Amino acid sequence: MPQPRTAHVRRETRESRVEVILNLDGSGRADIASGIGFLDHMLDSLARHARFDLAVKAEGDLHVDQHHTTEDIGITLGQALNEALAERRAIRRFGDATVPLDEALSQVAIDLGGRPWASIDLPFRGSSIGGLSTEMIPHLLQSFALDGRFALHVRLLAGDNDHHRAEATFKALARALDDATRPDPRLGNEVPSTKGVI
């Protein structure tokens, strides 16, 4: 029987406390409470469309600003993904998706090959969406990729509405993750790398 691909990670600093529970082989259930409504909405969308079961509980110094809480959620989520993937055996490794949301169109490509990288071209028109600072969205994605040990490329191809720009991006990330984390039975128990290790 395959090992469960799950993780339970806690991160506590003087600025925030974050707990993430992740099951890569879930059904899309999400239980998100970050204290930042729009961020909850984006993480719920990520879980739903990646078909991950995801719980995120965060308490942070929101009286200062959202930076520490959002960044630490990205870090902890990345650590959970890295732990759940373990040696990354028998996964498809690569994933990409181009997802529309009305007038917005976002493209995301990822490589779970163990080398962290983030190239994010995701401009916004306004300074916030539903209380979430828009500058924190690329920063969250970057933190997720670096601590998740994967290469992430994000390109906004079209879009006028900031809500749609962000949501199309998280949905594209979800679909790319669903594809890349999916077991490939043709690989048996092999690591998908010419190096033999990731």
Describe this structure in words.
It is built from 4 helices and 10 strands, in the order βββαβαβββββαβα. The chain is of the alpha+beta class and 198 residues long. The longest helix has 20 residues, at 162-181. The strands form 3 sheets. Strands 1-2-4-3 form a 4-stranded mixed sheet, covered by helices on one side. It has one domain (6-187): Imidazole glycerol phosphate dehydratase, domain 1 (Ribosomal Protein S5, domain 2, 2-Layer Sandwich).
Relative helix content: 25-40%
Task: Report the oligomer.
Answer: single chain
Which superfamily, in CATH terms, is the homologous superfamily? Imidazole glycerol phosphate dehydratase, domain 1
Category by helix and strand content = alpha+beta
Cα-atom radius of gyration: 16 Å
Task: Name the features.
single chain, 198 residues, globular, four-stranded mixed β-sheet, 30% strand, alpha+beta
In short:
By secondary structure, the chain is α+β, with helices and mostly antiparallel strands.
SSE topology:
Layout: E1 6-12, E2 16-23, E3 30-33, H1 37-50, E4 53-60, H2 67-85, E5 94-101, E6 104-111, E7 117-121, E8 128-129, E9 132-133, H3 136-148, E10 151-158, H4 162-181
Parallel strand pairs: 3-4, 7-10
Antiparallel strand pairs: 1-2, 2-4, 5-6, 6-10, 8-9
